[in-house]
Amino acid sequence: MPDKIVVKGVVLRETLTKEADKILTVLTAEQGRIGVVARGARRKNSRLAAASELLAFSELVLYERRGWWMLDEASTLSLWDGVRADVERLSLASYFAELAEAVSSEGEPAGETLSLLLNALYALDKLDKPQEQVKAAYELKLLALSGYEPLVSGCAVCGRSAPEEPLFDAREGVVLCRKCAGAAAWNMLRLDAGSLAAMRHVLGVDQKRMLAFVLRGDTARRFAHACEDFARVQLERDFRTLSFYKSLRAPAISGEMADFDNKP
Predict the structure, then answer these.
(1) Which of 75, 147, 202, 244 is the most exposed place for a label (fewest CB within 10 A)?
(2) 18 DSSP 8-state letter
């Protein structure tokens, strides 16, 4: 019998293959992102079916065969029933998974990334927090964990800890006073004291406390725009799951944005 290992992981992506199998992309703490073959997972009453669902968090018993990890047994720890019951939350959670896949690598430990993903899924599933706040905090913290942490402690030019009319340069990952930004200000996102404080909070605290703040109105929207734009620009790609989430949110977002302009 081949040697077996036991890991805990979240299914980031599922691909249907053959008649009843799945190939899973799973994020684990020890192995990072791995590919797992779940044979027969699509069969009715398969003992692997639940653990092979997108976003499922499970304890997995694996063995290696011909360069692939094969799923032998699985014990589901959470399926995030509250997330699955709501299409908007499910689409946002799928975006979280796609982001995690984008920043993780095979064979490189990903304990902090896995922990952050689990905290974000728990927030969507159990906590009464605005979706856009959870989304923005997750984007910003994930990018920071992945080596893209922005410098928001003060203006990148004059050093003021309380920048005047603060702007966020998503490409350079810095905050500037409007005056210091000069002619380049048109291409930056406008912040305010509250949204800048929220960014500093998320970057400076433990993952489990990163949602311990409240934002409203334009301040909340500036925070959300800055974090989303930062992730998109730094990773140099768009995300299919984010586009779908936005299509579901379109009526609400269009109403919120009618009188909002985030550019200087």
Answers:
(1) 147
(2) T
Q: How far lies 121's CA from each of 53, 58, 65, 86, 228, in Å?
A: 15, 14, 32, 13, 18
pLDDT in tens, 187-231: 999 999 999 999 999 999 999 999 999 999 999 999 999 999 999
Angle at the Cα of 130 from the Cα atoms of 250 and 147, rounded to 5 degrees: 95
Residue burial 77-101, b: 16+ Cβ < 10 Å; e: rest: eebbeebeeeeebbbbbbbbbbbbb
Cα dihedral across residues 67, 68, 73, 74: positive or negative: positive
Label residue 107 by pLDDT band (50, 70, 90): confident
Helix ranges, 85-181 (H): 87-103, 111-126, 131-143, 178-181
The SS3 assignment for 161 reads coil
**Using an 8 Å Cβ cutoff, are 99 and 142 in contact?**
yes
Mean of pLDDT over the chain:
94
Q: Which long-range contacts (CB under 8 A, 24 or more apart) does 43-52 make?
A: 46/20, 47/73, 47/74, 48/73, 48/74, 50/74, 50/76, 50/79, 51/11, 51/75, 51/76, 52/11, 52/14, 52/22, 52/24
Tell me which H or E stretch contains 77.
Answer: strand 68-78
Looking at the chain, the number of H-run helices and the number of E-run strands are 8, 9
Which tens digits make up the pLDDT trace of 171-192?
999 999 999 999 999 999 999 9
Confidence of residue 257 (pLDDT cuts 50, 70, 90): low
With contact defined as beta carbons under 8 Å apart, do 199 and 163 qualify? Answer: no
